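Need tokens for this chain, all 303 residues.
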Amino acid sequence: MRSRSPYPPYHRVLIDPKPMRLVDGIVVRLSSIMIVGSVLWGPFIAYSFLKRIMKKYKVDPTARKRILIAGAFASLVIIFGPHRKRKVGEWLNVRNWKLWDSWMRFVSYTVVQDLGDKEDDEGFSVDLWTEQAILSIIPHGIFPFGLGLAALPADAVRAFGLFRVVIASATNLFPIVSTVCSWLGAVDASKSSVNSALAAGDSIGLAPGGIAEMFEGYPKVGCEPNDEVALLMKRKGFVKMAIQHGLPIIPCYTFGATKMFKRLDLPLLEKISNFLRISLCIFFGKFGLVSNYYVFSYPNHQL
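Here are the structure tokens for all 303 residues:
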């Protein structure tokens, strides 16, 4: 009996998955701990380092105050320093890092274009390489892997073109993540910043569900492990901007993004997160670490 295709009746495969190697799993898990986990180990290392210095040299209160001020200044440089400029990312050739190839193999990365009710792409007039557009990539997941893997790897750029990622201000809590995003010319999620980017002729990519979408789906009460949830009904701001600037919206769905981490269902944290517009979520991955699960039954397809 022929198996049912997971793709739409009329489609075009833009990027085929590549087989994962053993080294890819190691690279992805280590880089996940380093990048995603930076919000955890970054402050811990900084605090331990300062504490050790003050204890070793038995500094007086005045010197201790100066060390703390210097530490705070260093933190600001890490978050907002000149090394985060877009030109630095171009100089480092960040999109061609072999690291992203490992990530794409790890998630069985596939890009499929839905052609609707036609057998070819006639009528699909948006060329993402030459035309400006807004890419709506859902769901957000615990971490927006779909958005990141559409913007970063050079292979993915072949399908999605070059676009600027719209990120929440809270991304600055992830030092490495925010730096890489800045290298890509990321745009703050404020209305004025997004409007300025669109007015400048840039394409943008966003996860409209945002922080609220992180808390949807399993293990929330009433949800099953394989449920997929997207918050769109009240997320009309990007649609209004598309109309205002006369731009097409390219809808993309990322299968598997919600399965790469698990989280604890804590309604109080969800309310606080939505109120403060900052993600306060207790999540974990393989071995209880900030290390991605390998998603066997949900390959990371983008349509």
